[in-house]
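Regression check, adenine case 249:
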Amino acid sequence: MKIDILTLFPEMVKAVLSESIVGRAIKEGKVEINVINYRDFSKDKHKRVDDYPFGGGRGMVIGIQPIYDCLQSLDLTNAKILLTSPQGKVFTQKKAEELSQEQHIVIICGHYEGIDYRVTEHLIDEEVSIGDYVLTGGELPALIIVDAVTRLIPGVLPDDATTGDSFSMGLLEYPQYTRPQDFLGWKVPEILLSGNHQQIAKFRLKESLRNTYLKRPDLLEHYPLNEEEKQLLNEIIMEEQEKIRKKNS
Ligand code: ADE
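Current build output:
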């Protein structure tokens, strides 16, 4: 996969990309990422990219010309062009999975000043938001999208490493533990030490349901529970009500 990131802050983006799993994926050639400063495409003699807004008002607006010319310099056959913006559709694991199937993604980083709306209307395929809050620029959102997508590219993580991901199955992940078995009296659940794989799988499914029920009950509204899961969820609801009763008595 190829990803082009168009930004006014290339060093900020490159610093993050060189580290950890994404850095390794780049070195191993699993993903090619180009960070492009679209200021370099400005036709202004001072390389300015922003200007006063038509109609007046405070602040400045990033113009369309440098972004247009920057896009023109790329081979966009099969490219999906995204603009990071708080007005976009909120980025989800499902979106990350969809994007990981693309051959080429171009991410234009938005900017707090705002971007000429003709970029949104004519140059991009989708606006993407990473959540209902406003950041100063689209660099962090772009990096979040790149991170979430890159880890899903085959060969970037070991096989199976992403199958139980939170959200990918519609539920949150089950809790994980490692040594020591007992830390200051806080013990690892006994069942995980039993070696009984069937029981362990059932425990994990139940705790995945419990995590979702307690932390993100909204996800359960869209999750089609099978008979076993319905029964486990009933048990969980009773157990959690019992815990509350005990705490209050
Ligand atoms: N730019 C500023 N805020 C943003 C957000 N929440 N998502 C994507 N891009 C943004």
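Comparison notes: The longest helix spans residues 227-248. The chain is about 40% helix and 15% strand. No diff flagged against the previous build.
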